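RECORD TYPE: inverse folding
INPUT: structure tokens
STRUCTURE:
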């Protein structure tokens, strides 16, 4: 009976394949094993019971292992889910960052394009202003050059006039020292020339050569009786030479230098032409003796500057007064150097005062009015 019960239990397990509770099933099998141990079918039942027990144990182990694997899988699934979620969040954040960078890049490109266009407009405007400024600078530079040329010409003219006045004094002194010598050939050429007709430069040059042959130099004065026009021409050559040289130094055109050219300068130099009418100055003592003669004749030393008989003496007297004033000012200021006082010295002051020289032309004129 027990064996049949064990067989039914074993067949029921095999047929249903239901996994019973491990502990209760093993207890039942153990109870059957004990009950059938001494029966004739005991060994067979024992063998079947042991097989069922092993099967139950194996099944139980597989179930526990499967549960452990399921737990591990669920844990791994949860971990993967969390990682997947984190990864999706990271990807979303990266997409958002990339989109933001793309927007910023597009905005920067738009700003750069706008800035470039604005810079191009500014460059165009600056170029226009620069061109306008350069035009104004060129105009101003041209005006400055024109003004400088005018100023240089004015200074040259003033210098030429001053030198002309000085040359007039020198010529006048020269004419007083040298009596006019008439030349028959020059007189005849003068008679042949018509009034108002301009004499060619070459003709005057030939007349100057003849003058040098007769007088030994080219110092023709405007008071030269035989040919006054030659004296004026000589004076104009000196003035033209001065203008020509100063124009060359100032790098301005030389076409307004009274016709002076390099060729004419060379021709005149070949004659030993003197470009200044400078005459050796008369010694101070000689003028002093002339002043003494004037005093013997007129009773005073008040020589007018335009003294017809001896204009050079009148100018010399005026220079003595100027030199005296400068000498006294330098002496009062304690300056030792008095060389820039027209040569005035203490000895000359003494000599002039010995003959009653008046240091003020105004006081001298008052004395004459009073009849002193």
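DESIGNED SEQUENCE:
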């Amino acid at each position: 009976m027990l064996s049949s019960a064990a067989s039914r239990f074993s067949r029921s397990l095999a047929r249903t394949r239901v996994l019973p509770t491990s502990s209760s099933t093993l207890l039942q099998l153990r109870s059957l094993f004990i009950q059938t141990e001494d029966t004739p079918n005991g060994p067979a039942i024992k063998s079947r019971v042991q097989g069922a027990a092993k099967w139950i144990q194996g099944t139980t182990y597989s179930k526990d292992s499967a549960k452990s694997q399921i737990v591990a899988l669920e844990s791994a699934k949860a971990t993967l889910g969390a990682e997947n979620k984190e990864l999706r969040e990271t990807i979303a954040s990266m997409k958002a960052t990339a989109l933001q960078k793309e927007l910023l890049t597009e905005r920067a490109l738009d700003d750069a394009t706008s800035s470039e266009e604005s810079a191009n407009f500014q460059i165009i405007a600056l170029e226009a202003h620069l061109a306008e400024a350069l035009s104004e600078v060129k105009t101003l530079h041209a005006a400055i050059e024109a003004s400088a040329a005018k100023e240089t010409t004015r200074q040259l003219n003033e210098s030429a006039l001053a030198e002309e006045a000085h040359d007039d004094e020198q010529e006048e002194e020269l004419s007083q020292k040298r009596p006019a010598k008439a030349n028959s050939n020059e007189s005849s050429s003068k008679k042949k020339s018509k009034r108002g007709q301009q004499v060619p430069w070459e003709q005057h040059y030939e007349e100057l050569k003849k003058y040098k042959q007769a007088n030994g130099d080219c110092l023709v004065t405007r008071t030269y009786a035989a040919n006054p026009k030659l004296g004026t021409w000589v004076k104009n050559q000196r003035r033209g030479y001065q203008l020509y040289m100063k124009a060359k130094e100032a790098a301005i055109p030389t076409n307004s230098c009274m016709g002076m050219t390099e060729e004419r300068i060379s021709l005149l130099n070949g004659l030993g032409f003197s470009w200044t009418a400078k005459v050796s100055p008369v010694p101070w003592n000689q003028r002093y003796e002339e002043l003494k003669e004037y005093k013997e004749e007129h009773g005073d030393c008040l020589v007018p500057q335009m003294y017809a008989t001896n204009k050079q003496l009148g100018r010399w007297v005026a220079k003595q007064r100027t030199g005296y004033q400068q000498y006294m000012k330098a002496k009062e200021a304690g300056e030792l150097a008095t060389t820039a006082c027209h040569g005035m010295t203490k000895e000359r002051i003494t000599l002039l005062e010995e003959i009653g020289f008046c240091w003020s032309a105004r006081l001298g004129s008052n004395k004459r009015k009073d009849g002193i």
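NOTES: Residues 16-21, 179-195, 368-372 have pLDDT under 50 and may be disordered.
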